[in-house]
Amino acid sequence: MKIVAYAVDEGVKMLLEERSQDAVKIDILNYAFGKLENGILSVEGLENVRDLPRLRKMNPNIKIVLSVGGWGAGGFSEIAMSHTSRRRFIKSVLDILERYGFDGLDVDWEYPGSSIAGITSSPEDKENFTNLMKELREALQGKLLSFAAGVEDLCIENIELAEVQKYVDFVHLMTYDMKSSFTKVTGHHTNLYPAEGDETKQSVAVAAEKFLEREVSKEKIFIGAAFYGRVWRGVNGDNNGLFQKAETYGSETISYRELKSKYIEKQGFKKFWDDSAKAPYLFDGNTFISYDDACSVKEKMLFAERMKLGGVIFWEYSLDDGELLNTLYETLRIERKEKGR
């Protein structure tokens, strides 16, 4: 069981300058994001990339992985298209990992075979993604290799999961934003179990089961926690705002830090707990906010332990005030102690 933290530049800076004590609570740090520029990997814009040795002094056991891509980041379909373009990209990967001392690569292609994020896609992406991960595995040898996976059926069906999982160490399930900017109906965006009254049945548990059914090894599966909330406004007041029509899409986000300081049991917002989903939410009679809190991330870690999964990932370190990471860490520490590990 491991804790994998995604961190953008601001998050890495926080670890380096303000919260060095958190470094020992993270097993793998995914530094986000490297970019694809003209078919090769670039870390331009990652201002703290030369300071990774300082993180290793804080936690000699930490693994630091470069995550490439993210929402709206294009170029993947093009680099995966041929052996020549894949080989050129992989050479740039090896150069970057060696230059800055990264322990591996995390591929965040959102998503093969889909243009939902406004990027180029191709019907051949499905097979080409397999080829890309296979060739990366061969080139990276002992280094870590993972990828971030969408959990919607369309995303799952566009990946040859049973084959791809052979070449990677971890599969990071993006079990957040399951309700988001594509719907004007409120709901939990990162719930552990299907919520009573939610016809979609979307949840972390359901997503994990879909990947297990497609022969992904359970120890490679990491479930996702969200260190931010999603917001709907102009919400019908029935059922305390849950599963109600809204005037806005759930595209607005608020960090957990800000939720704690300004929203939770403040400004007329009342906190509710949906025990069927193991998920909290806020409602003030007009605005609905779905998010993860200490109770829900603990439930996720315990679920991962019961299911013997690889662990938990979260997006994103700088959005937390320390409480959520500490909850994951303490829950895992207690589980390890009880099992004598």
Give a short overview.
With 341 residues, the protein is an alpha/beta fold. It has one domain: TIM Barrel.
Question: Keyphrases for this structure?
Answer:
alpha/beta; eight-stranded parallel barrel; 341 residues; TIM Barrel; five-stranded antiparallel β-sheet; 22% strand
Task: Describe the protein in words.
- The structure is a single chain.
- The chain is of the alpha/beta class and 341 residues long.
- The chain has a single domain (2-226, 292-338), classed as Alpha-Beta Barrel (TIM Barrel).
- The chain is 32% helix and 22% strand.
- The protein is built from 11 helices and 14 strands.
- The strands form 2 sheets. An 8-stranded parallel barrel has the order 1-2-4-5-6-7-8-14, surrounded by 5 helices.
- A hairpin with a 4-residue loop joins strand 11 (270-274) and strand 12 (279-283).
- The longest helix has 18 residues, at 83-100.
- The radius of gyration is 20 Å and the shape is globular.
- The protein starts with a strand and ends with a helix.
- The mean pLDDT is 97.
